[in-house]
Amino acid sequence: MAERKGAERPAVVVYENVRKLHGSFVAIDGVSLQVHKGEVMCLIGPSGSGKSTLLRCTNALESIEGGRVLIDGVPLPTNEREARKVRQRMGMVFQNFELFPHKSALDNVAMGPVTVLGLSQHEARERAMALLKKVGLADKAHNFPSGLSGGQQQRVAIARALAMEPEVMLFDEPTSALDPETIGEVLNVMKQLAEEGMTMVVVTHEMAFARRVANWVVVLDHGKVVEQGPPAQVFEAPRAERTRDFLSHLGWHG
Fold first, then answer.
1. How far apart (Å, rounded) are the C-alpha atoms in residues 254 and 234?
2. CA dihedral 185, 43, 20, 223 (to 10 degrees)
3. CA angle 29-58-133, nearest 5°?
4. pLDDT at 198 exceeding the cut of 60
5. Are 47 and 250 in contact (CB under 8 A)?
C-alpha cells in the first residue's frame, strides 16, 4: 500500500472490524480504517455500498453489531446520553440541510452554542456572524431558509456545525441535493476547511473533489473496503477490479 502522508499524526477516528446489520442485511461487513488528525478521508463507492451507514456509525447515530469505533482512543459509548457528548465533538452535515425553517440563518447557527454549549446570546450571535462570513453568507444572515438557495442553505448548515467547534467534521453527500451551479460553492467551503487542517470524513459522489482534496480515499462495496489509498493511486492506478468498474461507470478518466 502507498505511503500515507500524515499517518504519523494521532488517529482521531478508528474503525475496528465494524459490522452493522439491518435485520438480516449486512450493511457494514468488517470495516477497519483510521482517520488521522488533520486528514480528509473520502468514502466513495456505488449507492448502497454502506458509505452513509458507516458515517452514521461514527457518531453513534447508528448502533453497531460488531467491532468498535474509537474516538481519540476511547470506544464510542453505547449509552445515548454519553453518545450525545461525543456527538458534540463532531459536526455533521447531511444531504438535506435540516435547518429550522422558522429561524434566520444567523439564529440557525447561533442556536447550538446557546442551548448546548451555554454561550450567551451575544457571544453565540457573534460566533454565528463570523462563521456566516467565513462561508460567504454574511449578507444573508437575516434571511430565512426559504429565501436561500440550496447551496446557501448547505453553507449555513456547515456554519451551524462549525459553531460547535467540532474536532471532526462528517459530511454525508453534502452536494447530492443541490443544483449543479451551487455545488461548487459548497465544495469550495469544504476545500477551505481542509486547507485549514480540519479532520474530515466525507461521503461523496464528487470524484474530482475527492481526487483534489482527500488525503486518503476509501472505496466501499457491499459493506466492505475493496480498496484504499492516496487519491493519485485510487483514481489513476486502481488495483481492485471493482474500483476500476465503479470509476469507469462514472466516466472517470483521471
1. 10
2. 130
3. 140
4. yes
5. no
